[in-house]
Automatic annotation (TrEMBL):
GO terms for molecular function: heme binding; iron ion binding; monooxygenase activity; oxidoreductase activity, acting on paired donors, with incorporation or reduction of molecular oxygen. SUPFAM superfamilies: Cytochrome P450 (SSF48264). InterPro entries: Cyt_P450 (IPR001128), Cyt_P450_CS (IPR017972), Cyt_P450_E_grp-IV (IPR002403), Cyt_P450_sf (IPR036396). GO terms for biological process: sterol metabolic process. Keywords: Heme, Iron, Membrane, Metal-binding, Monooxygenase, Oxidoreductase, Transmembrane, Transmembrane helix. Belongs to the cytochrome P450 family. Its cofactor is heme. This is Cytochrome P450. Gene3D superfamilies: Cytochrome P450.
């Protein structure tokens, strides 16, 4: 398999790295106690702040567009070492790379190192998003999210997710000769999230949210220039519409909670409405909306990119497809049921290994020939890798709460796809663009047909 596919989810990870690992180290560099030397005399890492205002952002974007984000970092690591300074749009920052740095970032306490997202992301998620809050507030909101996307909560929603994935897959694919793989993954991901986590059932309501969410997602990864012709301007307008729609939904759910037709555990919105802080105060509507938008932004791009990359890979690699198909046919033979449960997901061991490979692992000290597609890297305890070396979902107290949800969601998509359809790429060498997620440039047009029927 080519390197592009293998590192397909590399960019979101790297961009997340900017958000998380590239933390402004002011607390470290400029401690509160009176410094023994003025801060401008303190050692700061080598590197370049680049051009005035833009800093090194344009070079970084060019590297991402050319699929060379990793090379951009590697080059600087070669020049300056694993910790280097840079600047994007006036924000001075420190890039830290490698296992030791990952450990430092993920294990440092909140009062020493705080995680914040880049400006456009904050404008899209909102300032009261889980990304931006710390301490007790972060724990409170995170706990509510975890209740739905991990453990028992996730276990409970698998059958519903399974039937929805199948329903939306069939609706989008049945009767068509070709589809755009990326758009298909986007529709399934957003519709399932809206139905499962927010219990939205009205298709029109979801469709209206879908178009605006695509704009909001673009806005999160664009230059924050607020002029009528910019993507950012349209994204801000879309965010306002999403905000208004969520306010209507929240009011409806608040009334349903009051009249007893909805329980606090029925969906994430009901849970958030029922949350109380240590002083017994409810969470303001604005904060709930910020967090609902955050869930979509945090889950959508990376999951879609991973899922589309998987579909692309299976179209190119018949050997892996056959092994995956074998695993899933066996599950159907055993369960005799089209709707899968948590225990069925546990049987998808090979599928999960392929998912791991599709996520980033570019450090050749732990992964020889990192660009090679090799699911056996993740087989057996003897082949395990050092801690903090491979962190596609982050780590520490901000480790992605949705990693199991992402895994289940992809496993279900793969299951219903391989057991019902076969597909081939209409543009075999379609380039991969990486702004910010590594997606095929033309949205992955695929020819798709029922399994067992000859390809015309
Ligand atoms: C392939 C899919 C995914 C990848 C690669 C991914 C990756 C990440 C990473 C790297 C972080 C940052 C961790 C940090 O700050 O240290 C993160 C945070 C987060 N992710 Fe994911 N994620 C994925 C899917 C999801 C899904 C499906 C959801 C929700 C259903 C989700 C919700 C979140 C939330 C809410 C946070 C913020 C956590 C916090 O600040 O406490 N993610 N994710």
């Amino acid at each position: 398999m080519d390197g592009a596919t293998n590192s397909n989810t590399q960019t979101p990870f790297l961009v997340a790295t900017i958000a998380v690992i590239v933390v402004v180290l002011f607390k470290w560099l400029y401690p509160k106690r009176k410094p023994s030397r003025p801060h401008w005399e303190k050692p700061i890492p080598p590197g370049s702040f680049g051009l005035p205002i833009f800093g090194e952002l344009l070079g970084w974007i060019r590297a991402l567009e050319g699929g060379a984000g990793y090379k951009w970092i590697e080059e600087r690591v070669g020049w300056y070492g694993p910790v280097f300074k840079t600047s994007f749009m006036g924000t001075k920052m420190v890039f830290v790379t490698g296992q030791v740095s990952n450990k430092f970032v993920f294990t440092s306490p909140d009062d020493m190192l705080q995680s914040h997202q880049p400006v456009p992301i904050v404008h899209m998620t909102g300032e009261q998003s889980i990304f931006e809050v710390h301490g007790g507030r972060h724990k409170l909101v995170r706990g509510a999210i975890l209740g739905f996307v991990r453990g028992e909560g996730l276990n409970r929603i698998v059958p519903l997710m399974s039937s929805l994935v199948k329903k939306y897959l069939m609706k989008e694919v049945e009767g068509k000769e070709s589809v755009l793989g990326v758009i298909l993954m986007k529709k399934i991901a957003l519709k399932v999230t809206c139905a499962v986590l927010f219990s939205l059932k009205n298709e029109e309501e979801i469709e209206a949210l879908f178009d605006d969410f695509l704009l909001v997602l673009k806005g999160a990864w664009t230059l924050p220039i607020y002029l009528p012709f910019t993507t950012y301007y349209r994204a801000i307008a879309a965010r306002r519409r999403v905000y208004d729609r969520f306010c209507v939904i929240i009011d409806r759910k608040r009334r349903q909670l009051e009249d007893g037709s909805l329980s606090p555990h029925d969906d994430l919105i009901a849970t958030m409405l029922s949350l109380r802080d240590e002083e017994g105060r409810a969470i303001p509507t604005r904060e709930i909306v910020d967090n609902l938008i955050t869930i979509v932004i945090a889950s959508h791009g990376s999951s879609v990119s991973l899922n589309a990359s998987f579909v692309r890979h299976l179209a190119m690699d018949k050997v892996t497809l056959e092994r995956i198909c074998e695993e899933h046919t066996k599950i159907i033979d055993e369960t005799k049921d089209e709707t899968l449960t948590w225990s069925d997901i546990q049987k998808m061991k090979y599928t999960w290994k392929v998912q791991w490979v599709t996520l980033t692992h570019m450090d050749e000290t732990a992964f020889p020939e990192p660009e090679k597609f090799d699911p056996s890297r993740f087989e057996g305890a003897s082949k395990s890798f050092p801690p903090y070396m491979y962190v596609p979902f982050g780590g520490g107290q901000r480790v992605c709460p949705g990693n199991d949800y992402a895994r289940v969601s992809l496993s279900l998509i793969v299951h219903h796809l391989v057991t019902n359809f076969r597909w081939s790429m209409l543009i075999p060498n379609e380039p991969i663009v990486r702004i910010p997620f590594a997606d095929p440039a033309m949205n992955l047009p695929i020819k798709i047909y029922r399994r067992g029927k000859e390809e015309a």
